[in-house]
Amino acid sequence: MAGHKGRSYTGYIILGIIASFFIYFILWVIFKEKMPFHEYAYEIANNYDSYAEKAIILIPLVVFILIFIALMKPNAAKRFLRLQSSLPTSKIHSVAKGVVEIEGNLIMKDPLSSPVKNEECIGYYYTIENIGRDSDGKETYSTIHRETQCNIFQMKDDTGIIEVEPEGIELVLLGETNISSHGGKRYKETLLKDGQKMLLVGYADAKNGVPFIRKDDYYKILGITSSSGISVWNKYQPLLRSFMFTCSVILLIIIYILIQ
Predict the structure, then answer these.
(1) Confidence of residue 187 (pLDDT cuts 50, 70, 90)
(2) Is residue 232 part of a domain?
(3) Mind listing the UniProt keywords for this protein, alphabetically (predicted)?
(4) Which of 123, 125, 243, 247 could disulfide-pair with 190, CB 3.0 to 4.6 Å?
(5) How many Å apart are CA 242 and CA 145, to the nearest integer?
(6) In this predicted structure, what is the pLDDT of residue 3?
(7) Which of 77-91, 99-113, 127-141, 212-226 has the lowest mean pLDDT?
(8) 111 has a pLDDT exceeding 80
(9) One-character DSSP codes across 63-76
(10) How many domains, the chain?
(11) Among candidates 255, 237, 233, 234, which has minimal Cα distance to 245?
């Protein structure tokens, strides 16, 4: 999914916690009762098998909770999808001030040149990834750079045209337009191009009596996606949500049975 700039530090936090426990254990082996929480460490060391059995059950539960928190953590793309599912699609000619959803074809004003293929475009989401290999020899990728660039553009439906000020825009559920690899790196770009039929959620405002769309200050959202892609998402997203909920309930039941 393009447009998500923030990096998740959950993995680093987990590694930090594991490293802290490991360092504490090494120091406890050396200094024993001089260490804080010596009584608890001594209890665990003397009843290792019992605690190991509990850990085998609890670790998957902790991992499940962390994954659930990561999935539920709000970001611009999730806010876009949540608002999009609840907003009616407004006609451009009658758009009212406030958070709106509009659908129409993009009109390019000042073209940009895309970084990978030098294609003329309205805007792009661009990433650079280091290419590595895992122990099985399969390629792995780690993102080292990401950026979104977009010029002012317009959207047109059968009732009129409206301008979009794209500062802070997020490209949601859009696949890569071009991919290129060389020099141990992979370069990917997702483009907004003239004539594409898109759906946009943002804040309808006015300047000198002329309406335009900008990023919403309250929800912090200005998002755009393809009309066809969002139709598929809206069709299957309830099924995906039901499936994830069912799997969560089953996993919790299994864990409950195991700890009895």
Answers:
(1) very high
(2) yes
(3) Membrane, Transmembrane, Transmembrane helix
(4) 125
(5) 35
(6) 40
(7) 77-91
(8) yes
(9) HHHHHHHHHHS--H
(10) 2
(11) 237
Indicate if 60 and 152 belong to the same structural domain.
no
> In terms of Cα–Cα distance, which of 65, 61, 151 is closest to 106?
151
Cα separation of 168 and 224, whole Å?
11
Paired tokens of 123: 């805007």
Same domain, 138 and 46: no
Q: Please name the amino acid found at residue 116.
A: V
Say if 226 falls within a structural domain: yes
Q: Tell which residue, 153, 190, 162, 150, has the closest CA to residue 101.
A: 162
pLDDT at 41 (0 to 100): 67
The answer to whether 134 touches 109, Cβ cutoff 8 Å, is no
Average pLDDT over residues 92-118: 96
Distance CA 158, CA 154 (A): 14
Helix, strand counts (H, E) of the chain: 5, 14
- 213/203 Cα distance (integer angstroms): 5
Task: Provide mean pLDDT across the span 179-208.
Answer: 96
User: What are the structure tokens assigned to 222, written together?
Assistant: 């200005």
Listed in sequence order, the DSSP H helices in 9-153 are: 10-31, 38-46, 48-72, 76-86
Distance CA 106, CA 102 (A): 11
Q: Is residue 62 included in any domain, yes or no?
A: yes
Last residue of a domain, one of 52, 73, 94: 73
Answer yes or no: do 153 and 36 share one domain: no
- Distance (Å, whole) CA 178 – CA 104: 24
- Cα separation of 6 and 9, whole Å? 9
160 and 90 in contact (C-beta within 8 Å)? no
Domain with 135 in it: 76-239
Across the range 57-63, mean pLDDT stands at: 63
